[in-house]
TrEMBL record:
Signal peptide: none annotated. Residues 2-243, 287-532 form the ABC transporter domain. Belongs to the ABC transporter superfamily. This is ABC transporter ATP-binding protein. It comes from Kribbella deserti. GO terms for molecular function: ATP binding. Keywords: ATP-binding, Nucleotide-binding, Transport.
């Protein structure tokens, strides 16, 4: 169905190719998982399948890409629209209509599908992806996860032979991600659709893959083969594989079920070595919501929310798509005005960058009424769409502007970016970066100001495991220095690694608030892989297991 024959892609102005001498075949009816570190060329590989590379992106493509018998050098994307459906990393950038239902129908209209067939497929897709309740909603009013499901649905309604997806579950809550992956499984096994997807959250998808394509980046060759065989040596691997490597299991398990079967002896060894977690002593309150009610138009997103965030905490905000998480973050920076109740944030005592766990504080600010130049000394937000913060012509300029804006020593922002994503080229335009690299740049810009309260909305979208580990280190350093971090995320593995406290929202209400282990360990939706494998033992991460085994030896 798909053949890459010695494919090399070089973008205009770049001295090194994004892909080098790539050859592989994917037969009909397989699910192929593309893995690799952030910026390694995964998106380039996916875009080459439907001809976006090079017909839309520019650059040169050497070698051949053949899809269902059509050479992409001779067939432009429009000539492959009936064969290949594609969903990019940024769903909003690909939308062409105004509402969910119109977007689902658009591709079928373009292909001349009869009206009665269109209606049936739209209804099937609305039900399949849980979008029926937002069918008439404007696309711009959707949450990030709802947008992603709509983009997937728009590709599915055309019934393509090949479906290409770039980070399809990155903005989805665990339940919605499982629904989407189950739908993809049905397409593969029941309809013979060939699915190619790139995903950093391997814990969600590796067990479903028929083959893995590893894109290492640089001059290294692309490898393809059996998932279990490649995972044995792959530099990026989900927690279930990392645990298997640590325990010496063979063959390596790819699913929680297989790992639980292999973990009987490990659970016995660990039963007397349970981890001891000491909660950090919270400092002064940096943010407070009191009976907060907020929303958009007639829709109420937050209903009587009361909570406090204190210095020294790393708080994870979790819940289904549309639960109100982004609305809470936007309320804390004044982008959403409370309908009733109150929001207050606390700047540093002297307008400086750091509040400090025990230092003094300036007067509390109401974010929707505060002047921006005062608010930036109290709170900083990295939004779901990081490109909204980026406006300079190059990465170097973006970092230099951030240093000037926050009055920090030259090179401070670039040093942060180097820690998060060391491979980013200073000369690149921010919009030419991969989704993960753009996120790292936006994170660096906001963290450069080191506000007392740091808000992160889906901070791990597009990040590989290495970049996430580096982000965890930075967030721990911020908390230790007396800042507070509030991150809205669906990444349960990230929460297990870094969060000291978890808040769970449902339908705009706070339904759970407590220590991380207490809230997520027993949750079917939010428990990390290690917790599921070793239950009822209270381990959350591979690192905790490694520490316990090291102490036992």
């Amino acid at each position: 169905m798909i053949e890459f024959d010695r494919v090399t892609v070089t973008y205009d102005g770049q001295t090194e190719p994004a892909l080098r001498d790539v050859s592989f075949e994917i037969p009909e009816g397989e699910l192929a998982l593309v893995i690799g570190r952030t910026g390694s060329g995964k998106s380039t590989l996916l875009r080459a399948i439907n001809g976006l590379v090079p017909h839309f992106t520019g650059g040169t493509l050497a070698g051949r890409v053949v899809v269902n018998g059509r050479d992409t050098r001779l067939h432009r994307p429009r000539d492959l629209a009936d064969v290949v459906g594609i969903v990019g990393q940024d769903p909003l950038a690909g939308f062409v209509t105004d509402t969910v239902e119109d977007e689902l129908a658009y591709s079928m209209e373009s292909l001349g599908v009869p009206a009665d067939v269109m209606r049936r497929r739209v209804e099937e897709t609305l039900d399949l992806l849980g979008l029926a309740d937002v069918r008439d909603r404007p696309l711009t009013s959707l949450s990030g996860g709802q947008r992603q499901r709509t983009a997937i649905g728009a590709a599915l309604t055309a019934h393509p032979a090949v479906l290409v997806l770039d980070e399809p579950t990155s903005a989805l809550d665990p339940q919605a991600a499982e629904e989407v992956l189950a739908a993809l499984q049905r397409l593969v096994h029941d309809l013979g659709v060939t699915v190619v997807l790139a995903e950093h959250r391997l814990e969600r998808v590796i067990q479903y893959a028929d083959r893995v394509i590893e894109v290492p980046g640089g001059s290294a060759s692309v490898a393809t083969g059996d998932p279990a065989a490649l995972m044995a040596t792959a530099p990026v691997a989900p927690p279930v594989v990392e645990l298997g490597r640590l325990a010496g299991w063979s063959p390596l398990p790819l699913s929680v079920r297989d790992a639980r079967r292999a973990a009987v002896a490990l659970r016995n060894d660990l039963s007397a070595r349970v981890p001891v977690r000491v909660a950090p002593e919270p400092g002064r309150v940096l943010a407070r919501c009191n009976d907060l009610v907020a929303g958009y138009g007639p829709t109420l997103a937050l209903r009587g929310l009361t909570l406090e965030i204190a210095a020294g905490e790393v708080v994870a905000l979790m819940g289904r798509n549309g639960a109100g998480k982004s609305t809470l973050l936007n309320s804390l920076v004044g982008l959403v005005k409370p309908r009733s109740g109150s929001v207050a944030v606390t700047p540093g005592s002297d307008g400086s960058r750091s509040a400090g766990a025990s230092g003094g504080a300036g007067a509390a600010l109401a974010p929707d009424k505060a002047r921006p130049k005062d608010l930036v000394h109290a709170v900083g937000l990295v939004p779901q769409e990081p490109a909204d913060l980026l406006y300079a012509a190059t990465v170097a300029d973006e970092c230099a502007h951030a240093d000037d804006d926050f009055g920090v020593p030259a090179g401070s922002c670039r040093d942060l970016l180097r820690r998060l994503s060391p491979e980013v080229d200073d000369r690149m335009h921010p919009r030419d970066l991969s989704e993960g690299q753009r996120l790292c740049l936006a994170l660096s810009v906001v963290l450069c100001g080191a506000p007392p309260l740091v808000l992160l909305d889906e901070p791990t979208r597009g990040l590989d495991y290495g970049a996430k580990r580096r982000l965890v280190t930075i967030l721990r350093e911020l908390a230790a220095a007396g800042h507070a971090v509030l991150l809205s995320t669906h990444d349960v593995e990230m929460v297990a690694e870094v969060a000291t406290r978890v808040l769970v929202l449902a339908d705009g209400e706070l339904v759970s608030d407590g220590p991380t282990a207490t809230v997520i360990a027993g949750s079917p939706a939010f428990a990390p892989q290690v917790a599921k494998i070793l239950a009822p033992l209270p381990f959350l991460t591979v690192g905790e297991v490694a520490t316990a085994l090291g102490e036992a030896s």
